[in-house]
Amino acid sequence: MEFLNTVEIDARLHPASSAQSKGRDGNISANAREPRTLTITAASSNPKMFTLPWEKPLSVWPQELLANLPRGISRHIVRFVHVGDEIYAMKEITRNVAEREYELLRRLQKLDLPTVTPIAVVTGRHDKSGEPLESILVTRHLKFSLPYRALFARNLRPDTAQRLIDALAVLMVRLHLAGFYWGDVSLSNVLFLRDADEFTAFLVDAETGDLHAVLTDGQREYDMDLARTNIIGELMDLSSGKLLPGDVDEVEVGNRLAERYHSLWSTLTDTENFKPDEMWKIERRVNKLNKLGFDVDELEMKTTEDGNRILVRPRVVDAGYASRKLLRLTGLDVQENQARRLLNDLDAYRASTWQDDEDLEIVATDWMRVVFEPTVRMIPPEYRSQIEPAQFFHEILEHRWFLAEKAGHDIPMREAVKSYIDTVLPKYKLDTEDVEQLNAEADSGVVDDDSAFNANDDNYGSDAVDNDPDAAVWASR
Description:
- This protein is of the alpha+beta class and 477 residues long.
- The chain has 4 domains: 2-143 and 447-475, no CATH class; 148-269, Transferase(Phosphotransferase), domain 1 (Orthogonal Bundle), CATH 1.10.510.10; 272-319, no CATH class; 321-428, no CATH class.
- 40% of the residues lie in helices and 17% in strands.
- The chain contains 14 helices and 14 strands.
- The chain has helices spanning 95-110, 148-152, 160-177, 217-240, 250-269, 280-291, 321-330, 336-352, 360-376, 389-407, 413-423, 432-444, 464-467, 471-475, and strands at 2-5, 9-13, 38-42, 78-83, 86-93, 117-123, 135-140, 180-181, 190-195, 198-203, 210-211, 272-274, 294-303, 310-319.
- Strands 1-2-3-6-7-5-4 form a 7-stranded antiparallel β-sheet.
- Helix 3 (160-177) runs parallel beside helix 5 (250-269), helix 7 packs across helix 8 and helix 8 (336-352) packs across helix 10.
- The longest helix has 24 residues, at 217-240.
- The radius of gyration is 26 Å and the shape is globular.
């Protein structure tokens, strides 16, 4: 095994099955097969990666390596794999596509956008008989996340579809602000994390995407039209499987995505007119953007020619206003709506303990020790991989309020936690049968033909087949 100590860590492995064969005298046979090279390109090294059975098709990897997690529908073979203490998502695709998506995900990560984390791309795979295998893109499993079909397999609120659409609208706006053209927007290409009473969406598939300095209105609208069409179709599919509540109008939900997207885009990017004596309206707009979860880096201000009005356009840098504030105060790295709820509870604790004059940093340390940490330590061990501590805390607060309203008086925190664990938390668990059914549906969407890899697509280059040894795998099927 040879390690190449470059900016990216390349491990070049020479499996015994593909190495030059030796005769009984130890000399290399003249007719021996030339060495075949497996290359793992990774942004960071995990030695356990080198022990995986890369010489086998991903679909037949040993069960003891696989994590029993629900998968979303994909055109490609996807598996969740235990790699040491980590769980990685492995996707089997052609080399050019794998390398391109890996680099694109790395660029999106550097822009601090909500995507899965790229770990490695594995190329030059061959089976024991020397036949080529597709490359594998490796990403880190997004802990606590679920594909949309897994969410609908549970007993969720009737407005779940609308809340998922709202999360997708925010994701699309953030990606478009950064210049990312998606090209294949759908619920299937997104993972969702619970975020207090809402969801946060993360991009999981960037195969068809591209990063530009700025997107044109036409590029944004094409992405939106495609998203609307795909989502209506996906919701209709859920409805046919009796997973969607009967009162949900699929077309109305698809239209909601466009409405939410355009409303948020307008709020973040429009130029507003103010009179010179209306400067307070500028502060109001900044506060509105902060409440939406976006930070404003600077304001572009110009006066009209007659000097009677001021044109103001904010420069939004990123989402995460509340989450960054909570991280600074407590060290908790959570989603935006979770952060907002925890900050509200922190403020309530500050008032109830008569610490209004105390530094917020000191109060936050006290709140963590007295309130937050004792509560989340009560999560039963079997649920610690099912629900985030911040989401657990938020739902405890909601449940406590519900119990207090029903009883007509305050409920002790410990009593509220016990009631929640007994009556609400079990709904989070997907049993083995549910996961197997979801994964069978996911595998049914796999496409193993040339339509999944268009060699003449401008995204990949017209000479992709000639330059990509893995493309032969597709052509032979």
